[in-house]
Design brief:
The protein has 4 helices and 6 strands. By secondary structure, it is of the alpha+beta class. The strands form 2 sheets. It has a 4-stranded mixed beta sheet. Strands 1-2 form a two-stranded antiparallel sheet.
């Protein structure tokens, strides 16, 4: 037993640097200023947190619950979903800078010829990412989908975060 204690101590000491490593975020090539990372590398020893998809809150309680009017346009819905994500992360002692991967699902918008309102999404997204206060950028995918759980939803966002 006495011989085992020093071996365990050395093993723990050697493992410590792996826990001290930071998440590495790789910039997009060609000096792009687009506010996402090309890739994010998470070192071993970090805890990964997967948040379920978040949808927007009701912004007009008088509108029918299955209408776009109840939840707002794509920008409003993006801000609502990201605010819900932010609150969930804060309740877990994490913040938006701990997000390493984001999947965004956007429903086509009639006012954009049935195509997703990517500009509206970006107008909401850039209030949370790539700012002076929160410069850490996640790797991200944004796709158009045929629909979400409620016909009034235009946005659902799920994220993966890493505990520092």
């Amino acid at each position: 037993m006495q011989k085992l204690v020093p071996i365990v101590a050395v093993a723990l000491w050697l493992a410590a640097p792996a826990h001290a490593q930071d998440v590495t975020r790789y910039k997009l090539p060609n000096n792009s200023t687009f506010p996402i990372s090309a890739a994010v590398e998470v070192p071993s020893g970090k805890s990964t947190v997967y948040l379920s998809g978040m949808v927007p809150p009701v912004v007009d309680a008088k509108a029918p619950k299955d209408s776009i009017a109840a939840y707002g346009d794509t920008k409003t819905q993006t801000i609502g979903a990201l605010t819900a994500i932010q609150k969930q992360l804060q309740s877990m002692h994490l913040d938006m800078g701990d997000i390493v991967k984001m999947h965004v699902f956007l429903v086509g918008d009639e006012s954009h010829g049935g195509r997703m309102d990517f500009a509206g999404f970006m107008a909401g997204y850039t209030q949370f990412f790539g700012t002076k206060d929160q410069p850490k950028l996640p790797a991200r995918s944004a796709v158009q989908v045929a629909g979400l759980a409620n016909p009034g939803f235009r946005v659902e966002i799920e994220v993966t975060a890493v505990r520092p």
